[in-house]
Amino acid sequence: MSINETSINKQYQNIIDLLRQKRLKEALRQTETLITQGNVNPALTNRLEQDKTSYEYMLQYMRQGMEDPQRKGMYQQLCAGAWNLADLIRLNLLDKDSTHYYHELRRTQTYRPSEISIKETLHLLEGISDDIALFRLTANGKPLPSELLQKHDNNCRDIFLETWTNSRWSKEEENEANLWLESISLPSIDLCIMTSAVTLSLLECFDEAKLLWLLQATRHNETAPAQRALVGLALALLTYGKRLELYPKITQALTLHNEEYGLGIQLNRIIIQLLRAQDTEKINRKMQQEILPEMMKNADLLRQMRLGTEETEEEDANPDWAETFDRMGLTEKIQEMNELQMEGSDIYMSSFAMLKNYPFFHDLVNWFVPFYQEHSSIAPLLTGTNPLSRPLLFLLESGFFCNSDKYSLAFMLQYLPQAQRDQMVTQLTNADIDRLEEENHVSQLQKHAARPEVISNQYVHDLYRFFKLNRRRTEFRDPFAETIHPYECEILRTLLGEDKQMRQVADFLFQKERRTEALPIYQELTTRIPDDAELFQKVGFCLQKEKRYDEAINAYRMADVLKPDHVWTIRHLATCYRLSHQYDKALEYYLHIEQIQPGNATVLYYAGACLAALSRYEEALQYFFRLDLQEENCIRAWRSIAWCSLLSGRWPQAAKYYGRIPEEERNADDDLNAGHTSWVSGDLPAAVKHYRKAAARYGSHVLFRQAFDRDRIVLVGLGIDAEDIPLMEDQVF
Questions:
Q1: What are phi and psi of 668, to 5 degrees?
Q2: Cα separations (Å) of 632 from 254, 627, 660?
Q3: Contacts for 501 with CB less than 8 Å, ≥ 6 apart
Q4: Structural domain boundaries of the chain?
Q5: Distance CA 660, CA 354 (A)
Q6: Pseudo-torsion of CA 262, 264, 265, 266, nearest 10°?
Q7: Nearest-10 crossing angle of helices 71-97, 101-108
Q8: Could you give the residue ranges of the DSSP H alpha helices within 166-220?
Q9: In sequence order, which residues have a C-beta less than 8 Å from that of residue 673 and are 6 or more positions away?
Q10: Closest among 372, 358, 353 to 464, alpha carbons compared
Q11: What are the residue ranges in the chain where pLDDT is below 70?
């Protein structure tokens, strides 16, 4: 990005910040400064002068004390106009300087004849659709002519680029675009491409007409474009939420759609899918580091389980496999992968990331083309007599992969050597597919793939790949890299702010351990539903994980009032009191739990720990002895008994229990404390020996001395002369 480009964007952002703060006069002044960056279209300069004049008149009338019932609406219009003007000036300046593909296209307009309108392109595509239908009626099974397929793809590409780079539709263009939604002969694929172009254009530059077009498209009778429109609308609302307050036509239309069609419920689903997509990198790391390596180590066994055993004609699987899988940890890994896939997580991103370098993906539109077998780039592979076509189509139509990955898979197979292709055909035969069809599996997979939530989720995956993998990705603002705030503006709160919907979002974030994002939603819900103990529990847990223990305690105490004697709440109250060093209060709650769950090992341990922290060593020892009797080879009990014995003057007992800890389980603190025990007992050679082992385990003189100094007060309290402590430290080294 050039210095001039950076300067333009910075000044533009300053203007937007002023408009958000309702500082219109300053924003207009900054816009005037922005214009000086270059030769701006004179029409934009004239618009600025008109806006300034209109605002001055408004202020003048106000100074004169004149009543103006239209003032609020006019001010809103002026703010919206100033924002729109700043958008257009910024684009006008960047079109002259920027090397981004978007501005290159706007600058050159070389991708299509300018005289072909949106309406004419619609008619062209409708005509091509009719030609394809007619050919199928008369061709006796022959493949479609490549020229016809190429003509279709070229027109789709042209309208995509034209729509994407058109920053603001004129009234005529808006009307022509609406014809796309009304057409009964336009293929769903073409409307999907148009919907993606509108979304991408809207993310580049706000356009009221395009946002309303997407809103209308959400009601289309074809599921695929309607779901794409929902995703695009969600992204636009998240991007421009606060700005929409200046556009009453949009807010009224959104409110009406919500009341009539339940738009908010649908958008809530999309929001969760977008949030889930943000976890893709974490899922990919888990797949690459844990799940796939474990499965690859046992690839031979997995191959045997392909469609039955290789060695026998019996159809039942070997019962020993389940035990083998459990022993290897494979059952858990496979189940985890299945659960991730079933919930809609993107488990294939890393697998397909390296398959996005085909020339197909160099063309921007192809990241958004729905997968269909007659696309000119893959038709030879999937039509005609190719033996791979039926098995491959079965795989691609199953709903497992997003559109982008389906094309990647097709290209990978297209470029495979013939021998490997033949091997794939033998591994998944037509007979296998016949059997799956007879068992109704194919029909079930197709129904699953056609569900609205599956289609929208796969489209989210397509978008994620575009923003993360396309070779010009640095030129785009990545919505998946930004924190999603679904409730920070009024219109989004209206659409998504029902208690049930908010709880779904909060619970999703909570489940994914994104507790910082979940917390404010739960906190608001507690004000709406003040008698729900679970909400207060979750608020407390989020605060606890942020180490805000006092606030967590308040939330847990509310949960305890609403749902008394709930062990989970009491245990977490005890934990927060303990971690905030309020050991007396923590002890009260641990003793309360002990009454409800006698013999709970964790409670015994922490009750003893609290007593020890309160210097009640004799009582603490009783709890640790009970824990030692209850658990076999309980090292944490031995450590605690030894420490309390040391501090209470039972030095032989302390030495005995430190001695019980196996060498392989010992840590540096064990050896340090054993050294203390030997020293206060008068066995200096043994003390030096233990201290040297501790120093070796700490790994440095500095860490050892820090640990030793930490216990200085303890040693003095046990009778060690403070003057001898530095001498002992020197003995160690």
A1: -60, -40
A2: 64, 9, 13
A3: 264, 265, 268
A4: 3-98, 280-303+323-344
A5: 55
A6: 90
A7: 90
A8: 171-182, 188-204, 208-217
A9: 642, 643, 646, 654, 658
A10: 353
A11: 1-3, 110-115, 291-338, 383-391, 395, 398, 421-422, 424-442
